[in-house]
Amino acid sequence: MVMKRVGTADLKAHLSEHLRAVRDGEELIVMDRREPIARVIPFEELEEGLVIEPGRGSLADFPWPAPVRGIDEIDVASALRAERGDRR
């Protein structure tokens, strides 16, 4: 299925027309210049309510950042007060 691509100006100028097409089952890709920024698809009610899918993979597979070494302990409250200055 080829999705129709519309620019933001065209979407704004012909919103009702585009929404009728979506209501009839068509999907739209919204473009900003030549970059796709959104996809508008028909709304589908879920008969069984909220669907929660189990996670895939393992947290062990997540690319956690390495710990930062060499930073002295920082008094966070003092740093925050200094950053805020007189603002309250």
Walk me through this protein's architecture.
27% of the residues lie in helices and 17% in strands. The protein is of the alpha+beta class and 88 residues long. The protein has a domain at 4-40: 3-Layer(aba) Sandwich (YefM-like fold). The protein has a three-stranded mixed β-sheet with strand order 1-2-3. Strand 2 and strand 3 form a beta hairpin. 1% of the residues are buried.
| N- and C-termini, Cα separation | 56 Å
Under CATH at level 1, the class of the domain at 4-40 stands as Alpha Beta
Strand numbers in spatial order across the main sheet: 1-2-3
Let me know the largest β-sheet.
3 strands, mixed
The CATH topology assignment of the domain at 4-40 is: YefM-like fold
Structural class of the secondary structure composition? Answer: alpha+beta
Q: What is the topological layout?
A:
Layout lengths: L3 E4 H6 L1 H9 L4 E5 L2 E6 L35 H9 L4
Parallel strand pairs: 1-2
Antiparallel strand pairs: 2-3
Question: What structural keywords apply?
Answer:
17% strand, 27% helix, YefM-like fold, alpha+beta, 88 residues, three-stranded mixed beta sheet
Offer a quick outline of the entry.
The chain has helices spanning 8-13, 15-23, 76-84; strands at 4-7, 28-32, 35-40.
